[in-house]
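Write out the 3D structure for:
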Amino acid sequence: MKLTVRRNYKGEAYTIGALYIDGVYFCDTLEDRVRDLAKEAKVPGETAIPAGTYPVTVNRSPKFGRDLPRLQNVPGFDGVLIHRGNTAADTAGCILVGENKVKGKVINSTGYELTLTTAIQTAIEHGEAITITIE
């Protein structure tokens, strides 16, 4: 399974994108601000992960107490998850899923998180490798 996040809007405080599963649009995304880490310092909890391709697993988040997709091998970042939330204050470097119907937010995120997590778990059970590419 190949996940892709296409970043469509890079604002001062947040980034809006679209998540695709095997090339098919799934939902909108919300991340922290994209920073050029070669030119400016990472601000913990306020910086989007670098563009690139990363392996994805699903495991129990100690913080949230439920199974969530987790990105692996993200340079300079640990514990990057894909989860529910509404604003950049909810991201802490993670990727939020939902519908971008309100400026600077995603809404209706719980259903997207649950559907995505289940789809990834099923793919893993069938022996598929899961990756996410951030563009």
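Residues 32 and 98 are 15 Å apart (CA to CA).
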